[in-house]
Automatic annotation (TrEMBL):
It comes from Coccomyxa subellipsoidea (strain C-169) (Green microalga). Pfam families: Aha1_N (PF09229), AHSA1 (PF08327). PANTHER family: AHA1 DOMAIN-CONTAINING PROTEIN, HEAT SHOCK PROTEIN 90 HSP90 CO-CHAPERONE AHA-1. Residues 29-161 form the Activator of Hsp90 ATPase AHSA1-like N-terminal domain. Residues 191-211 have a biased composition (Basic and acidic residues). One of its GO terms (cellular component) is cytosol. GO terms for molecular function: ATPase activator activity; protein-folding chaperone binding. This is Activator of Hsp90 ATPase AHSA1-like N-terminal domain-containing protein. Belongs to the AHA1 family. One of its GO terms (biological process) is protein folding. It comes from the Eukaryota. Residues 160-211 are annotated as: Disordered.
Length: 352
């Protein structure tokens, strides 16, 4: 019997000096990032996303995966914790009879994490060129191809939630020394804080990216008088001539400027013939409510030569599908689809 004030050592629970996690009962932690890289390569690499008489679309052979992926076993309950970024490439061809035009690009999943396991992750798709084939293949990727792509991602998440690697690999890993319970709990707590902070920052960035805007500034030279160029944006016949499509052009403040089958939906906000045009401008694939400001100034430094200066502000950095190349594609669209066509159709200095 113990003396008064000492207690009986048989009933006192003392801290183990070796800090052992007996029989791995309390906590087992396993890094499954190597497995995740291999599995995502198998699921997403060289996958055919669309194959029909009109086009062929498939992912490239290499998939880049970065981040963290851990499976915790708390009293035999599996708790996955992961935050991954996935990048890869795609290629394809658009068929027209015996002819075929090829194009390629990349895909990006910026945030695949356990906090959004019940949702399809954000998918961004970009093209290497601005050709018609590239645009069509991109639309196919974000259409039926996206469904097949997300099906593979759901398979990956389901496997990760079940423990990730095979049971054989589990058995091999179980032979390795595991971290003690106290250290594992401390490490887990610190990692969870880091993960929560990173998740909050990522969510904040996504909101900021969708809300933030950029600008496009272009300077072009034409062998024409300012009035000739002014009419290229205000005369319905001229607009239809260089766009090669039906156009709605109402040259007055508040009037419509709709071209390329409604892909561009703009409204004139100022008209000062023949030197200045201003429009409220948006593309159909922009987020709802996103409208940019376009100002075009026409100057004639010498007779017969007009310098066009364009400034477009309020251009969203992402479109409604999450693609982050809006500013670049907008600038390319002005050059290729408008300025180049005006020169080619009206002879105002092709190739300048």
């Amino acid at each position: 019997m113990a003396k008064i004030g000492e207690g009986d050592a048989r009933w006192i629970v003392s801290e183990r000096q070796d800090g052992a996690n007996v029989n791995n009962w309390h906590w087992q932690e396993k890094d499954v990032l190597p497995w995740a890289k291999v599995r995502l390569q198998e699921l997403l690499g060289e996958q055919v996303l669309a194959d029909n008489s009109g086009l062929l679309l498939k992912t490239g052979p290499n998939v880049e995966v970065s981040g963290d992926a851990i499976v915790n076993n708390r009293k035999k309950k599996l708790i996955p914790s992961y935050e991954l970024e996935i990048k890869g490439t795609w290629s394809g061809e658009v068929r027209d009879g015996e002819a075929a035009e090829s194009a390629s690009g990349s895909f990006h999943l910026p945030y695949v994490a356990d906090e959004n396991a019940d949702e399809d992750p954000e998918l961004k798709v970009s093209t290497s060129t601005d050709s018609a084939a590239a645009r069509r293949l991109k639309e196919a990727f974000l259409g039926p191809g996206k469904q097949a792509f997300h099906a593979h991602m759901r398979s990956f998440v389901k496997e990760l939630q079940a423990g990730g690697p095979s049971s054989k690999a589990d058995a091999q890993d179980s032979k390795q020394p595991l971290e003690d319970d106290a250290a594992a709990m401390k490490k887990k707590g610190g990692r969870r804080e880091i993960e929560e902070k990173k998740a909050a920052e990522a969510a904040k960035r996504r909101v900021e990216d969708r809300a933030s805007t950029g600008r496009v500034e272009l300077t072009e030279k034409f062998y024409a008088r300012p009035r000739d160029l002014f009419e290229c944006f205000t005369n319905p016949g001229r607009v239809q001539a260089f766009t090669q499509s039906a156009a709605q052009v109402e040259p007055r403040v508040g009037g419509k400027f709709c071209v390329f089958g409604g892909s561009v939906d703009a409204t004139f906000s100022a008209l000062e013939s023949p030197s200045r045009i201003a429009l409220d401008w948006r593309f159909r694939n922009w987020p709802d409510g996103a409208v940019s400001k376009v100002e075009i100034k026409l100057e004639e430094p010498q007779e017969g030569t007009t310098v066009l200066r364009l400034v477009q502000t309020g251009v969203p950095k992402e479109d409604r599908f999450g693609n982050g190349d809006v500013i670049e594609s907008t600038a390319q669209g002005w050059r290729a689809q408008i300025f180049h066509r005006i020169r080619a159709v009206f002879g105002f200095g092709l190739g300048m």
